[in-house]
Protein: hydroxymethylpyrimidine kinase
Organism: Pseudomonas fulva
Amino acid sequence: MIDFGLPDYPRSTARLAPSRPVVLCLSGHDPSGGAGLQADIEALLAQCCHAAPAVTALTVQDTVDVSDFRVLDRDWVLAQAHAVIADMPVAAVKLGMLGSVEMVDTVLMIMDKLPGVPLVCDPVLRAGGGGALGKEDVGFAMRERLFAVSTIATPNLPEARILAELPEGSADQCAEKLLPYIEHLLITGGHGDESEVHNRLYLRDGSRHDFTCARLPGSYHGSGCTLASTLAGRLALGQDLIGAVKTALDYTWRTLRDAEQPGRGQFVPRRLPLDFS
């Protein structure tokens, strides 16, 4: 045995600190590290949560665009999720790329094991570069079946248009079409030419909350993943939904303000370190 010269501290079976809230992440893997599960993990670390990442799909992508993807078999995804659920108290669930109707049904099977646990649905239907991450029927299945068990969905406006089947619809028009399916809907802006970004939280009771932030130059890879993961983390910590949305939007904007460009394409949010002053 190698002697490293370290003091022989007595072992203790007592926990040194309370466990952080566990967030089960069902998302795809992005090898560029900008989006997907790495974005989930980093954003949740910044919220002082523990990410439990279960892979739903493998992708071939970089910071420019996605070129291919493969959805994992249902049994593999169920095995990953059930291993986490049997071992840890899951405080929230975050959905990212699903990629197939079968994976939508798989999520429903997983949520049957987690009654009452908040679910943040990020309907990842397009990569940042515009490439499709599933057939059109995936969005339909999300709206018709998955929204019913979701606490909130966080589409950007192009995704909201796909989900609402309104190719030219405004955020208000999309919300009107989607709110019968889900109680809370956050439609994020930033896809037009306006000088400010308008993010709109719609509630089924008819109320609406608007959150405005300054537009930043450039385009970003993984901003939606960052937002949804942060929101799931805030809900896992017990923050109220409207407050959690505001916190998640503020944090995400700061990660974009400090973003890096590690490749030839989009900027990647700088989710860590924790100090964004």
Observations:
- DSSP finds eight helices and nine strands in the chain.
